[in-house]
Amino acid sequence: MTAFSTDHYGRNWNRVSVHEHCPIYDHADWCRIFDDGGIECMRVESPVQCASGGWMHWPSGHPSTDWRDQFDRHVSNQPTDDVDRLLRALRTAAVNGEFLAEIGGIR
């Protein structure tokens, strides 16, 4: 397999074929093999169900790399100072009823 497609997570994959069967069920159609070692089998269940209806299998028992890390490392759970100040102000105004009055709600 040389021509990969890319899924919405940025992982490369290719469909199984008559030349390379699904390593899980040994069929030549419907399943996908990922370049990171994952196999999405559409026939054999695993603990990890995919949105497409298949199940992810990892021959080593777990992903060779956690592909989700590439998305999570850029996201901070800590709000910036500006966002934090805004949220505090909104909470305070809503508790005092000022916020609803200012936006035309309950007076």
Layout of helices and strands:
Layout: E1 5-6, E2 12-15, E3 32-34, E4 39-41, E5 48-49, E6 55-57, H1 69-72, H2 81-96, H3 98-102
Please give a structural write-up.
There is one protein chain. By secondary structure, the chain is α+β, with helices and mostly antiparallel strands. It has 2 domains: 1-75, no CATH class; 78-102. The protein is built from 3 helices and 6 strands. The protein has helices at 69-72, 81-96, 98-102, and strands spanning 5-6, 12-15, 32-34, 39-41, 48-49, 55-57. A 6-stranded antiparallel sheet has the order 1-2-3-4-6-5, with no helix packed on it. A hairpin with a 5-residue loop joins strand 5 and strand 6. The chain is rod-shaped and about 70 Å long. Mean pLDDT is 75; it is low at 70-75.
Secondary structural class: alpha+beta
The string of secondary-structure elements, in order, is: EEEEEEHHH
SS field, number of helical segments = 3
- Side by side, the strands of the main sheet go 1-2-3-4-6-5
What's the N-to-C terminus distance? 67 Å
Number of strands: 6
Low-confidence stretches: 70-75
How many domain modules?
2
User: Helical amount among residues, as a percent range?
Assistant: 10-25%
Average of pLDDT: 75
- The radius of gyration over CA amounts to 24 Å
> Sheet with the most strands?
6 strands, antiparallel
Strand content: 15-25%
* Overall geometric form: rod-shaped
Q: Could you state the oligomeric state of the chains shown?
A: single chain
